[in-house]
Amino acid sequence: MTLSNSVNLIEAMPLLAKNGGDWYGTYIHVDEDGNILDKHRSHLIPVFEDGASDYHQRNIYTWDDGRQVEYTFVGRYEDGAVIYDTDRIWGKAWESDEHTMILRFHYKDDPDKYIYEYIHLSDDGEHRTRMWQWFNEKGEVYKRTL
Q1: How far is Cα 129 from Cα 86, in angstroms, rounded to an integer?
Q2: pTM for this entry
Q3: Would you say residue 8 has pLDDT above 70?
């Protein structure tokens, strides 16, 4: 899928561009009391094409039992943010400062709930942390992902 417009995403969102490459980690989903609901490995691959305004990311999640799922996200740059509208999610991501990206998104199969994801990149660009806060239709946190 190509969504190109005339903006160079690498220049428009330099922090986002620093997040390119392969990132490996673990996602841990906890309820509001801190009880672990799920835990799995992640391999995230953000890709940038020089001069393009589109954002592409491939996520591969693997559980200890061998189960694996893969998702591809494509977004377009618009007014200081990357806008997502895939078959699974819709939302947007923006840079809040020189270290932090924020993504607000909804799953299309549960549109009354929403998630804020905070992504922090270290000064040396070698370490990244992520945290999701899951909000219900009343705006109350009911789950977190670390």
Answers
A1: 24
A2: 0.87
A3: yes
